[in-house]
Input
Amino acid sequence: MSTNSVAVRRHVLADLIPGSVARNALLVVGGAALTGLAAQLSVPIQPISPVPVTGQTFAVLLVAAALGPWRALTSMVLYLAVGMAGVPWFAGGTSGAGGASFGYILGYLAAGLLVGELARRAGDRTPLRTVGTMVAGNAVIYAFGVSWLVATVGLSVGTALAVGVVPFLIGDGIKIALAAGILPGAWALVRRLGR
Output
């Protein structure tokens, strides 16, 4: 058998942890918990925006890159379901469906799937690729969040962009820069350890 016919196994950081079912369950629960914890780092910025600045998106994107598409999606579904069931772990200790931020939470599911898949395809191995992966994930979250603001809060598209995207660009840029150091750094450590 030639080396060309051997399939290269693509993986994410979570695949390097031994185990299978129990590992996956712990990673999914841990990803949801990390997202809920990061949501508590919440700073209201009214009247600039009805949506607070949080650590949530940073956690979602890191979880997605580390877990891969299906574990990340499952983790975000768990985060959403537990919050809708009444656990106050959405931004600022809120829970349930609705509110100005809820569209962003729905976007976490799609962003988890996208960023997880991009990471599975090595989109988190270098700083530049990580930036592209994180920008794509943020764009998905923004798309859901802005659509929610238009549909439920009744804002025009222009106003929804002005209050639902613009105030967060600098902070998200900083988060992306951090991710561009953390994820490739983790992969460099994995290579150094020979894993």
About this structure: The longest helix spans residues 127-153. Helices lie at 21-39, 56-67, 69-84, 102-120, 127-153, 157-164, 169-192. The two ends are 24 Å apart (CA to CA). The CA atoms of residues 111 and 139 lie 8 Å apart.
